[in-house]
Automatic annotation (TrEMBL):
PPR repeat copies, ranges: 132-166, 203-237, 238-273, 274-308, 309-343, 344-378, 414-448
Keyword Flavoprotein: no
InterPro entries hit by this protein: PPR5-like (IPR044179), PPR_rpt (IPR002885), TPR-like_helical_dom_sf (IPR011990)
Protein name (database record): Pentatricopeptide repeat-containing protein
NCBIfam families in UniProt: PPR (TIGR00756)
Biological source species: Stephania yunnanensis
Length: 482
């Protein structure tokens, strides 16, 4: 943004204009005509606008208002489309393509699967609509993320009914939707189905997804089968696949298999370890409390000239904090500052969580203030850690302070946050407050889970309130199904 009378650093200006004691040039910054003046004996340029300050400010305000107006119009249009999609009326068949597609993209991006399918149904009714495999691929990926494999299958069948020929990407998205949600048999059957089409055979990406599904479901016994099939089909392994294996074995604490996969990776032509490989090793050993091993592998990767990223330092902070090595944790933070790594919300959340669990409330609050001072907005994870820390330290008044802060913010709360609050007041025996916050949870359209019910059951059971437990079970059951 242009600021009138700002100073611009200029190098060797006097050499360029050695014959003149001062000079004036006309330039344009943005769309604002300006005069650049060099004063005698100065190596700086002073930029002065030919327009008045008020005129420039008005221009910038008009531009900002125009952008805001466009955003508001877009949001209003998307909401209008969503209302029409829910109306399920046959008359909305000539809607603006841009608005309908924006509404669909918006719901997919936010993983709002019900809204996305409604918007897709509305798109399907438009006279200008032409089926595209790319749209189905995006929807299938979203349904997999939202744990809706049944809906994914129905959408795929709808695609076949329309006479659309699935692509490799469509099939791979269906494999992911099945596999990541525990339906591995269906995932493998889908891969077999792909083999029956000459132009839709599974590729390296398909098998990478399949291996990732096996890893996520801890079905390591199936991995050799997949790798053997790849070799038979002549599909070469790549870095992404090895990283998937290394990460999966590491999270399952199968360290020997993890290191064997790393050795295979180094021996495979065209496969080179990267920062994801580094982070997987550090997380695996750090999470298991094997700090010496973690530090050894950090040094090994340094010798390979692999530069760490911000996630690397977050993993180190978490590992040292979990092991109670707070001096080393702070040393990592200092090292980040020296190397100009800017801490992210994840960095601060990790530090706050570790210090809170250690009962170091003063230090935790210091980092919380620093985080806000640096312009990072606390999120639900931040507040969850703070509530848990204050609860463990018996500082209930500070929990109230957190709740007031949240009331004055636009933070999006999730179920784990509410569970931490329920646990805090449950331990204090404040059943009335638990119930009030439960209704607040419903108003924010945040659904309780099994942990919520377990916390309430324990709190009510401790005070012999059996009837309330039964009532709550009905409430939670209704909320979860609504």
């Amino acid at each position: 943004m242009f600021v009138p009378a700002m100073e611009v650093e200029v190098f060797n200006v006097i050499d360029l204009r050695s014959s003149c004691s001062s000079f004036i040039n006309f330039i344009s910054i943005g769309r604002v005509p300006c005069i650049v003046v060099q004063r005698e004996g100065s190596s700086r340029l002073c930029v002065k606008s030919k327009k008045g300050n008020a005129e420039i400010v008005k221009g910038l305000q008009r531009e900002s208002k125009a952008k805001l107006s466009h955003i508001l119009r877009t949001e209003a249009a998307v909401k209008a489309i969503e209302r029409k999609a829910k109306a399920k009326s046959a008359k909305f068949t000539h809607l603006c393509p841009k608005v309908v597609l924006e509404a669909l993209e918006d719901s997919i991006r936010k993983n709002q699967w019900e809204s996305a399918l409604e918007n897709f149904g509305l798109l399907h009714k438009q006279q200008w609509y032409q089926p595209r495999c790319q749209t189905y691929t995006k929807l299938l990926v979203m349904l997999g993320k939202c744990r809706q494999p049944g809906q994914a299958r129905m959408l795929f069948e709808k695609m076949l009914v329309e006479g659309i020929k699935p692509t490799v990407d469509v099939y791979t998205s269906l494999v992911s939707a099945y596999g990541l949600n525990g339906f591995l048999d269906e995932a493998f059957c889908t891969v077999e189905e792909m083999k029956s089409f000459s132009d839709c055979k599974p590729d390296i990406y398909t098998y990478s997804i399949l291996i990732n599904c096996c890893v996520k479901q801890r079905r390591f016994d199936l991995i050799d089968l997949v790798l053997s099939e790849m070799s038979y089909l002549g599909i070469d392994r790549n870095t992404v696949m090895y990283n998937t294996l290394i990460d999966g074995y590491g999270k399952a604490e199968k360290f020997e298999l993890m290191e064997n996969s790393f050795s295979d990776m180094l021996e495979t032509q065209g496969c080179h370890p990267d920062v994801f490989t580094l982070n997987s090793f550090l997380w695996a050993y750090g999470n298991a409390g094997m700090i010496e091993k973690m530090e050894k592998w950090y040094e090994e990767f340094q010798h390979m000239r692999l530069a760490p990223d911000i996630k690397t330092f977050n993993i180190l902070i978490r590992s040292y904090g979990k092991a109670g090595m707070y001096d080393k944790m702070h040393a990592v933070v200092k090292f980040m500052e020296k190397r100009f790594f800017t801490p992210t919300i994840v960095t601060y959340n990790t530090i706050i969580d570790m210090l809170g669990k250690a009962g170091n409330i003063d230090k935790m609050e210091h980092f919380f203030r620093t985080m806000k001072y640096k312009g990072l907005k606390p999120n639900s994870i931040t507040y969850c850690s703070l509530v848990s820390a204050y609860s463990g330290a018996g500082q209930r008044k500070k929990i109230w302070s957190i709740i007031r802060q949240i009331g004055n913010s636009d933070v999006v709360l999730d179920t784990p946050f509410f569970n931490s609050v329920f646990s805090a007041f449950g331990q204090a025996g404040d059943l009335k407050m638990m119930e009030q916050i439960f209704f607040e949870m419903k108003e924010r359209k945040c659904k309780p889970d099994n942990i919520t019910f377990a916390i309430f059951s324990q709190a009510y059971g401790a005070y012999g309130v059996v009837e309330s437990t039964q009532d709550l079970e009905l409430k939670i059951g209704h909320t979860k199904n609504s």
